[in-house]
Every structure is written in structure tokens, then in C-alpha cells.
What does this fold into?
Amino acid sequence: MDKMVLVDAGIDYDGGLKRCLNDTSLYERVLCKFPGDKSYSKIVEALESADAKAAFEAAHTLKGVSANLGLTDLYDSVFPLVEELRNASDTGGAAPLMPSVTSNYERVIKALEAAQ
It folds into this structure.
């Protein structure tokens, strides 16, 4: 994988690698599986159906995955979304936060494709 492409997309390659015990093969295999994670699409679906609980759960999962893989910019954008939804009874406050999440999510996906 092209590390610089990943770093340029806001991915803390070295930090993610450390969490995988410096096993490059393991980290890159796990990183390549990220596009198959359904958390982002579940957030979108939950927000479209105004299901605050489901949106929170999906956002919380995406936050954890992002943290573990070193997807720093994505994590930084999804963190406020999680906090907005944590005790929310509706999804109204989440809409303004989604453009940043979407932008960072798409940037990670494109970088993973380009880095192969």
C-alpha cells in the first residue's frame, strides 16, 4: 500500500499500525476491509428515517472503527455526531454534522482504492 496516499487522506498509518502490534500485513488487511463496514450507510439510513437510536449506534460503531484503524479525520468528524445523538430524541441536530462525516468517509474510501 502507498502509505503517503493514506496519510494524505487523514489516516494515521503509524498509529493504526501500532494498534496492530506493528504487523503491517495485518493492519493493511484490516484497513482494506473498512469499505465493507456498513456503519456509515446505517447512519445515513437511520437519519433518513429519523431513528435517533439507530443513528447513534451506527455512529458510535463508526467512531470506534475509525479510532482503531487510525482514520483520524473521519474520527474527528464523527465524534461530534455521536455526542449530538447520544441522548437525542430526534435527529434534527445531526444533519448539519453529516457533510463533514460524508466528506471524510469518501476521502478514506478513495484513498484506500488509490493506495492499493
About this structure: The mean pLDDT is 96. Helices lie at 3-8, 13-19, 24-33, 39-48, 52-69, 72-85, 98-115.
